[in-house]
Specification:
By secondary structure, the protein is an alpha/beta fold. Helices cover 38% and strands 20% of the residues. Helix 6 runs parallel beside helix 7 and helix 9 packs across helix 12. The chain starts with a helix and ends in a 5-residue tail after the last helix.
Length: 316
């Protein structure tokens, strides 16, 4: 036998010996988020954590977005993904931007809250969403929940993309660079607080965050009941010494219905027991506990996670 063949046979034998006899093997795809956001590093941390704890499990992490991920899981192109509650609810019910119901998209567990953060340089003089008319804006890429939320934010002010001078669909990094260079006027991400991209922008061009008054929040909730009112705490960003009323939604993990219930049970157990380690990756998860992770976001639970949370007395 040639040396190459011997080497390959030895490697194969090692791989076989590392998986317990009779253990099932699974190769899954986890849809995360765009580079520069919180989802991609969190996806990597979760994949690594689950692979170490569950023999035979392999998870590949792919960049994605809230809407794209629901479609990927709903069309069985991926088994796991991050999404936002408002988007996953739309997918389950078949509401726009989805063209049909995706009943096989199930909820595993809740991770943290994300905020819509309408950000402009102070020197632009923009004080309200209404002032964005005729300006150059940076929502997120199409397929990202944040991009849809940007359209809704404009809608409650009677505006649309047609009223803008230019709409740049870019990543967090691309959007910030456009504003730094004076080629855009407003950055409209949906992300955690504090957001590293906004901190980066603020270090070059001091920023202002735009508030949503109660009537606009109510109008947004008429568009999507999954939107929740929140306040970005004062001093989240240097120079922004005031609380900013805004809206947002929960980030959670979705899972395809056909993933075995016992495997989803084990995944849920591992993530709940290691939530503190995940908080080291995404600071928004600090303080999250098992009760929060069990939160009902309006999307049906996967039978595996439901069984785990019921056994722990966290859901009825």
């Amino acid at each position: 036998m040639k040396k190459g063949a011997l080497f390959f046979a030895a490697i194969l034998m090692v791989l076989v010996m590392t998986i317990p006899a009779g253990a099932a093997t699974y190769t899954y795809k986890l849809m995360a988020g765009p580079m520069g956001g919180s989802w991609y590093p969190l996806g990597g941390a979760i994949a690594e954590m689950l692979q170490k704890a569950i023999p035979g499990l392999t998870i590949g992490v792919q960049p994605g977005g809230g809407i794209t991920n629901v479609k990927s899981v709903g069309y069985q192109k991926a088994e796991l993904g991050f999404s936002n509650a408002c988007t996953a609810v739309d997918g389950s019910l078949g509401r726009p931007p989805f063209d049909k119901k995706l009943p096989n998209v199930k909820h595993m567990l809740t991770l943290y809250y994300q905020y819509f953060q309408a950000t402009v340089p102070k020197d632009t003089g923009i004080m309200s969403i209404a002032d964005l008319k005729g300006k150059r804006i940076c929502p997120m890429k199409k397929g990202n929940t944040g991009e849809l939320m940007s359209r809704h934010a404009l809608e409650v002010y009677g505006l649309s993309y047609k009223d803008m001078a230019k709409v740049n669909y870019g990543s967090y990094t691309d959007s910030v660079n456009l504003i730094k260079d004076g080629h855009a006027d407003a950055y409209l991400p949906v992300t955690t607080v504090p957001a590293s991209s906004i901190m980066d922008l603020n270090s070059v061009r001091p920023v202002r965050l735009l508030a949503f008054p109660p009537d606009k929040i109510a109008a947004l909730q008429q568009i999507n009941s999954g939107y929740k009112q929140r306040v970005i705490p004062a001093n989240s960003y240097e120079g922004v010494d005031y609380g900013v009323p805004t809206f947002g939604t929960y980030t959670h993990i979705i899972v395809e219905e056909s993933v075995p219930a016992d495997l989803v049970y084990k995944m849920t157990e591992i993530l709940v027991e290691n939530v503190g380690k995940l908080a080291q990756v995404v600071s928004a998860m600090k303080g999250a506990d098992a009760e929060f992770l069990a939160s009902d976001v309006g999307v049906p639970y996967h039978p595996g996670s439901m069984k785990y949370f019921k056994e722990k007395g966290l859901i009825k």
